[in-house]
Design a protein that fits this description.
- Helices cover about 45% and strands about 15% of the residues.
- It is globular and about 55 Å long.
- The protein is of the alpha/beta class.
- An eight-stranded parallel β-barrel has the order 1-2-3-4-5-6-7-8, surrounded by five helices.
- The longest helix has 18 residues.
- The protein folds into two domains: about 260 residues, Aldolase class I (TIM Barrel, Alpha-Beta Barrel), CATH 3.20.20.70; about 35 residues, no CATH class.
């Protein structure tokens, strides 16, 4: 192997988009209690690094979720987002996620001209696609870019995956995301799924995205595997912050794509101690044995979260519980 080929870089397609989901997926770890200074510093780092979209949180229904129990990034009121990040003239766009059944979108999402949000990402399971399409159409008519995340896809049959992609083909979604919610997929499996998604994307003129979880320490590997296959929308979070085992680390992804993005601002953000202070305040995420177990058996990470909440130390017993359930 020559020196020239040893460090071969990925093809940096113009269509590649990096989405920083730290405030949204990471918010599941600390109840979305990010300070305004943290959000502004993250925004500045993402902007300087060349990140394309910064996801600022959820548009959650205030009738379902108690505002006292969560920080404002759980609800992303337009006035709150504008107060922290208003007056933007940058090329980086802001995104927000809305879950099917957990967002009063007709009440809480206003016309794009009156909002700092540029894109809504609709999160759905395979059995709620009709509702997701309704939300996509609503947001599209209001002037927003839209994408759709099909969650827990590792639990669905090949037939269901194909049927779901065909249903979304006629929607206004700009991109359809492959979401490894349980961190259960391996690079060969995620590539095969990505090829199915990409075939649908070509048929229906949609971009494809990847949102990976790190239960088996494969979030970065699975993300760049999808990137190599032709997936253009790549999710990541700073330090991999996210529910349970977390996500693909933004610093890893930007380093991999260093011919287009600048890693230095994100490293400076980390050097300033922003993520360390979150951990010192009690936020916990990242690869660990109980998350490995749920990933191995394609299970929701809630069992592993409960394992750590109960301060259990019997990982062998936990393995037997999960493997037999």
């Amino acid at each position: 192997m020559t020196e020239e080929t040893a460090g071969a870089q990925p093809i940096l397609r113009p269509a590649l988009k990096v989405v920083d989901a730290t405030l949204r997926d990471g918010g599941l770890v600390n109840d979305f209690r990010f300070s305004d200074d943290f959000v502004r510093a993250l925004y500045a780092a993402d902007l300087a690094a060349g990140v394309d979209y910064m996801e600022v949180g959820y548009k959650a229904d205030r009738d379902i979720f108690d505002e006292i129990k969560f920080g404002k990034w759980k609800f992303c009121r337009d006035e709150d987002v504008a107060a922290v990040l208003g007056g933007r003239t940058s090329r980086m766009k802001l995104a927000c996620m809305a879950d099917v059944g957990r967002c009063n979108f007709r009440r809480d999402i206003c016309a794009k001209g009156n909002s700092p949000i540029d894109m809504y990402r609709i999160a759905t399971y395979a059995d709620t696609i009709p509702e997701a399409i309704g939300m996509l159409e609503y947001c599209d008519k209001l002037g927003y870019e839209t994408t759709v995340n099909i969650m827990a896809i590792s639990r669905e049959s090949v037939e269901t995956v194909q049927r779901t992609l065909d249903m979304l083909g006629g929607s206004p979604a700009k991109a359809i995301y492959l979401v490894d919610s349980y961190g259960a997929l391996y690079p060969d499996g995620v590539r095969a799924l990505a090829e199915t998604y990409l075939a649908a994307g070509q048929k229906y003129q949609k971009e494809i995205g990847i949102h990976a979880h790190n239960n088996q320490n494969l979030a970065f590997a699975n993300t760049i595997t999808c990137c190599g296959a032709g997936v253009n929308y790549l999710d990541a979070t700073v330090s991999g912050m996210g529910r349970g085992a977390g996500n693909c680390a933004l610093e890893l992804l930007l380093g991999y794509l260093k011919g287009r993005f600048d890693l230095s601002p994100v490293l400076a953000f980390l050097e300033a101690g922003h993520m360390q202070r979150l951990k010192e305040a009690g936020a916990m995420w990242g690869y660990d044995l109980a998350y490995l177990v749920t990933g191995l058996y394609n299970r929701h990470p809630s069992a592993a979260i409960g394992y750590y909440k109960d301060a259990r130390m019997d990982i062998s017993a936990f393995l037997k519980e999960v493997s037999s359930s």
